[in-house]
Amino acid sequence: MIVTKSWLNEFISIEDKSTEELCKTLNSIGLEVDRVVEYEIPNKIVFGHVIECERHPDADKLNVCKVDIGTSIRQIVCGAANVRKGLHVAVATVGAEMPGGLKIKPVKLRGVESEGMICSASELGLADIGGGIIEFDSSIGEFKLGQELSENPYLQDTLIEIELTANRGDCLSIYGVARDLCAAYSRPLKKIDDAQDVDRRMGIGRILQFSHTDGLNVNLRYKAVDFKEMKLPFIVSLRLSQIEEKQQSSLESVMFYSTYTTGVILRAYDYNFFKDSEEGDKKVKISLALDDLGYAAIYSKDKPASIVGIKQCDASRMRSNEGLVIIEASYIPPHIISKKMAENKVENGPLFYRTSRGSEPKLNIGLNYFIGMFEEYSESDIYGGNIELCDEYEGVVISISVDEINSIIGADIDKTTITKILQNLGFDIGKSQGNSFVVSVPRYRHDIANKQDIVEEIVRLVGIDNIPSKPFTLKEKNPLSDGYFQFKKLRKYRQSAAAQGFFETVHFVFNEKVKLKEYGFTCIDESLELLNPIVNTLDTMRPTLMLGLLNAASSNIKSGYKDVRLFEIGTVFSTARAESTKMAFIYSGDSSKDGILNSGKSKKMDFGSFVQLVSNVIGDIDLVKNEPAHGLANPYQSAKVLLDGQEVGELFKLHPEVQDEFDLDETFICEIEFDKLSFNLVEAKAYSKYQASFRDLSILVPSSLSYKDIQDVITENKTEEIVRFYPVDKYEDEKLGDNASLTIRFVLQSLTKTLEDEDITSTMDTVLNALNEKLGLTLR
Q1: What is the spatial distance between Cα 157 and Cα 154, in angstroms, rounded to a whole number?
Q2: DSSP 109
Q3: How confident is the model over 96-117, as a mean pLDDT?
Q4: Is residue 198 scored above 60 in pLDDT?
Q5: CB atoms within 10 A of CB 144
Q6: The pLDDT of residue 372 is above 70
Q7: Per-residue pLDDT at 280 exceeds 90
Q8: Terminal Cα distance for the chain, rounded
Q9: What share of the chain is helix, strand, coil (3-state, %, to 5)?
Q10: Residue 519 contacts by C-beta under 8 Å, 6 or more apart in sequence?
Q11: H or E segment at 5?
């Protein structure tokens, strides 16, 4: 996108801004400057007026001109084909040095004195407009004869080429770039005057009728002009040359110039294209409908005139320099036209680039600018009123708070600054309350769709250089997820079990429903059962690991092994098919290998030894009486397993009948809820450097009293000096009747001193008194 300072100045006052400052601002607001060209007119080149123009007596292609330069009248010989009386021209006076290095001196051309040179645009270092010497007019503002051209801002100008990103279609016009600069400089945008609609003019409705199909997402506005005697203004020729555009006629030049200036897509139709010879002087009819490929198109009966936003048919163009012209301003949302082109690609015209990226939706801006130029630089007659079609548009509304904006930016921008920026950008924030903004996005900003886009607008207007930089904090995401810790926990307990001599086994998550029910286990609800089991013996999801371990132990014993010690960690299922993880152990047969130390007669595994093995794996456990809910357990050797006071599973000796059924010897099983096993950092505790003391306490205990009751009383009443206690002996005799002698060993130790006999005696008395008061127990 190419702009010039003088062109921008038509919409925003930037006379006080240097080229360097202007470029810096454009870069900071995201309109990257790609190229800058300074047009500098040399000194001693002034405005002049040709008051006489005669043929050179000795040269057919030369003219002798009398030129008024304000202070004097100079005779200048000129060879330009377009020189003539009455022109306002650029005159290089004697002493001027041209951009190419030529110095102007008095000379004789074919015997005629010449004091100066009448210049073309290229000779002054301006863009080449062609057609010979410059013909100045009022389009460059007021000027005086003899005034130097370098004082005119339209000539002593700066061209700036901007590299636009594809989403900034709103800046594909001088008006759009100026609008962004207005927001950056917090200056008002100069409005385009409305075209004068004089009452005595004939209305457009007398010559034009418009029909359309609804729901095409198209905005159209039509004006009618009786086109005649149009002289292309110098400034239009100059600027079109600067942006390297060349049109075929003055009408098309002014139309493209208006489109480039305002961003509104303009087309000119020959009125006669829509005229039907059979209908005479009746008003013509224009219709809008979908074509065969689904594009919105303009028709004259069955003849296509154009595809809106895509191209204009050659037959409908205005080619003559006078006659009735229909001027169309159009807008179609860029996402619609781009999507349609992707679905059904058709040949497109030069303005498709603008419509596909988003043209200016305020059509009256472009039409008023275009009609204004016609009124000023031609004798054309403008028809009154206009015909228009507006689509239904639901604007983009985004809610965002000051805190959200500052959080995304990483800096504190006050609400007043944010408000001013949004208003300068043309966003409607009238419904905002408190620290929350309700932002209505103007239609020309097709690139604004979410909160991040709003924040980006604020950042580019504040200026990225004005936001304080902060050191980048590299914060690595913790890779230790729950899955990692679950894996570590699983590995820990597997290794602990293996260290105690257990071998790991893995089974299907399926069991035999008949067997499970036979042993008293509750299976999955019938509505959730397997529809297509692998085999009949694996026809339900397992509720326990124990049956699989029993089958594995039985197979190993039958293979000749005298002892089998297995464990498994796996998934089990509730009646509602909810999953959980359990850990199970089984030990069957000898507790040690036979050898010389036991004379070839190894002992069988016993309840206490199995408990110790399980404890070595999962930690210090307590056992309490348990009434098994299934038929695998021996009801007289079954216990609940407590870990830190919480029930985590069960441990039992296998029922004798089940042992016989599976051909097993003495067998013990434990099943634990794996999720309840601890896996925390081991917290170091202080230990005593003083000697520990051991004391045994033998008490008479009724046979009906459980050790758990005794344990609870001791735990509740023991002093700090009692580190731990445990039963070491139980003695029964007829002399004791229904009682038994239970010996409990106490380990006593202090963190601060060596315990003396008085301290130990006092501590033991406290325990004994509590047992006597609460349970009626006495020393044996």
Answers
A1: 6
A2: E
A3: 91
A4: no
A5: 9
A6: yes
A7: no
A8: 108
A9: 30, 30, 40
A10: 547, 630, 631, 632, 658
A11: helix 5-8
pLDDT at residue 707 tops 90: no
Q: Which of 206, 213, 265, 227 is nearest to 385 (CA)?
A: 206
CA distance linking residue 83 with residue 135, whole number of Å: 9
Q: Which residue has the tokens 């397992």?
A: 542
CB atoms within 10 A of CB 640: 18
pLDDT, residue 321, reads: 82
How far apart CA 164 and CA 46 sit, in angstroms, is 37
Classified as helix, coil or strand, 436 is strand
Q: What are the distances in angstroms from CA 767 to CA 407, 503, 747? A: 63, 43, 13
**Alpha-helical segments (H) within 425-574:** 451-462, 482-499, 513-518, 546-558
Helix axes 234-242, 250-262, angle to 10 degrees: 70
Both tokens of 480, joined, read: 């230790």
CA distance 777 to 547: 43
Whole-model pTM above 0.90? no
> What average pLDDT score do residues 196-221 get?
80
Report residue 295 as tokens.
Answer: 């594009």
3-state SS string for 499-524: HCCCEECCCCCEECHHHHHHCCCCCC
353 vs 256: CA distance, rounded Å: 14
Q: What is the dihedral of CA 607, 608, 613, 617, to 10 degrees?
A: 100
Q: Which amino acid is at 759?
A: D
Structure tokens at 195: 């075209």
Nearest-angstrom CA–CA distance, 510 and 548: 9
Q: What does each C-alpha distance from 726 to 198, 289, 298, 685, 750 come to in angstroms?
A: 113, 97, 101, 22, 19
Q: Which of 401, 411, 482, 470 is nearest to 435 (CA)?
A: 401
- Structural domains of the chain, ranges and CATH numbers in brackets: 2-38+160-185 (3.30.56.10), 45-156 (2.40.50.140), 204-389 (3.50.40.10), 397-466 (3.30.56.10), 482-676 (3.30.930.10), 693-779 (3.30.70.380)
For residues 689 and 673, the answer to whether their CB atoms sit within 8 Å is no
User: How far apart are alpha carbons 704 and 712 in whole angstroms?
Assistant: 16
